[in-house]
Amino acid sequence: MSDEKKPGLAQAIAVWWRINIEADHAPQRALAAKLRRAGTGEALGHREVIDLYDRVVAADAWLGRRLRHDPAPLGALARVLAHVRQHDPKHSLAWRLGGDDPAMSPARFERLMRASDIDEVATALIRALPMAGHGCAVGRLGRDLLRWGEQGPNDWYFDYFHTSPPETQSEDDLQTEKKA
C-alpha cells in the first residue's frame, strides 16, 4: 500500500470502531459487551481485536512492531472503545471533560494524566467516558491511548482547558527575538 493511500492511525481506529462496535447489530453488541467485561489480556482473544491490530500496522508500522512485543495497549484500547457510544469528530475526550464547568474535576483529570500503567489509563478512561456522554473523537482517543507513554496526552491539557497550544516558532523567529 503506498503512503498516500494509507489511512492515518486515528482514521483506521475510527473505522474499526464503526464496523465492530458502533453498528447496531447483534454481533457488534455482543462483541462490545464482551470487551466491556474483559481484562486487557482477555480482550486480545477476539478475532476483531486482531483485525484492529492489522489496521494499526497498516497505518503505523513502527507502532505495530511495538504492539507485537507488548500487546497490552491494544487490549486496553479495545476495552476502552467498547465503552464509546457516540463518535464526535470535533471534540476529543479531554475537551468534552473540561471547559469552564468541567465534567471531570481538575484533580481527577491530573490523576488521569499522570497514569502510566496501561490498565490504569484504560480504567480511568472508561470511568471518564460517562462524564463525557460516552462520546468523543474515537480515532483520536485510540491514537492517544496507543501512544500514551510517548506523546499521547500532551495536548490533552489544552483540550481540557479549551485553549490552543502555543504556535511553534521557527528558528528565524527565535534568532530575531534574541537580537531584539
From TrEMBL:
<dbReference type="InterPro" id="IPR013382">
    <property type="entry name" value="CRISPR-assoc_prot_Cse2"/>
</dbReference>
<dbReference type="Pfam" id="PF09485">
    <property type="entry name" value="CRISPR_Cse2"/>
</dbReference>
<dbReference type="InterPro" id="IPR038287">
    <property type="entry name" value="Cse2_sf"/>
</dbReference>
<protein>
    <recommendedName>
        <fullName>Type I-E CRISPR-associated protein Cse2/CasB</fullName>
    </recommendedName>
</protein>
